[in-house]
Design brief:
Layout lengths: L6 E9 L5 H9 L17 E7 L2 E7 L9 H15 L3 E7 L6 H12 L5 E6 L9 H11 L4 E4 L8 H11 L17 H16 L8 E10 L5 E9 L2 H8 L4 H18 L3 E9 L7 H7 L7
Parallel strand pairs: 1-3, 1-4, 4-5, 5-6, 8-9
Antiparallel strand pairs: 2-3, 7-8
The structure holds guanosine-5'-triphosphate and magnesium ion (MG).
Guanosine-5'-triphosphate binds next to helix 1.
Amino acid sequence: MDSNQDKCGFVNIIGATNVGKSTLLNKLVGQKISIMSRKVQTTRNSLKGILTIGNSQIIFIDTPGIFKPNRKLDKAMINSAWKSIEHSDITLLILEAVNTINKNTIIISNYLKKKKPSNLICIINKIDKVNHSSLLKITSVVKEHFNCNEYFYLSALKGNGVLELKNYLVNNIPIGPWHYSKDQITDIPYRFIASELVREKLMDRLHQEIPYGLTVETEDWNELDDGSVRIDILIFVHKLGQKKILIGTNGYNLKAVGSIVRKELELMMDKRVHIFLYVKVNRNWDNSPEYYKYLGLDFNVQ
Ligand SMILES: Nc1nc2c(ncn2[C@@H]2O[C@H](COP(=O)(O)OP(=O)(O)OP(=O)(O)O)[C@@H](O)[C@H]2O)c(=O)[nH]1
Ligand SMILES: [Mg+2]
């Protein structure tokens, strides 16, 4: 094999909700492209992150976390995660070092027994939370449920073990032409990143069912003559009561979210940003075909 030949591989990242998939994706590509939160069900659609090292290009796909779905939106999210397995060269199954096997991991284990991914790699994440002497025991329990080709132990949050994983992936992706240019790290437009950052901050600040009853969309994006950009962002909620809580007393919540997101986007894009946030009540936002299309999800999911 000619070691100078270009290599390119699709590596999808699957796992139960909240195990650290998006945190790992961001660590692997070196920039935040997928939002993360302490709450479950943060990622709603499959997102690409691209890492190019030497002559190798790895296209990672972060996916919505697996859990037992109830709502139509949840079902479509989980469908999109399963679908990504079909098109990947390597599948990274992310498990947590704490409470490793639970009802969500059992759903995954049952699914993978039927639909075998091409090269299943097990990642035990959050090892910063356990004593390293317990990793052997965790691995033997995992082996009762999953048939993985390799095992990696890492902390996506702190970065331990991420380099070893990158090296493995570079050595194991197939020969093939690159799909993206050398310095591209995602195909997600800034418009989408902006709305996702707003959703991330709202998930952090709001509690109970409210984070799951809202969605965020960028309505307008205008480059101004002075080199700055004006971004108008709409937040949809199901009920008027949710709107009031979201806005907060004297608009405090909304102002705080706008300010944090503005600073993050300014750093990312290296330009001045003006953000305008609006909250609208729409009882049906999660039942509109346009919304599913916007996220690349299947509206007709059963
Ligand atoms: N201690 C510790 N926490 C971590 C680690 N990796 C991720 N987390 C935390 O776990 C939580 C969930 O992280 P996410 O990256 O949003 O998890 P996810 O799997 O993408 O979640 P969904 O999109 O909801 O499926 C966040 O609070 C992260 O900071 C880790 O290695 N160690
Ligand atoms: Mg996620």
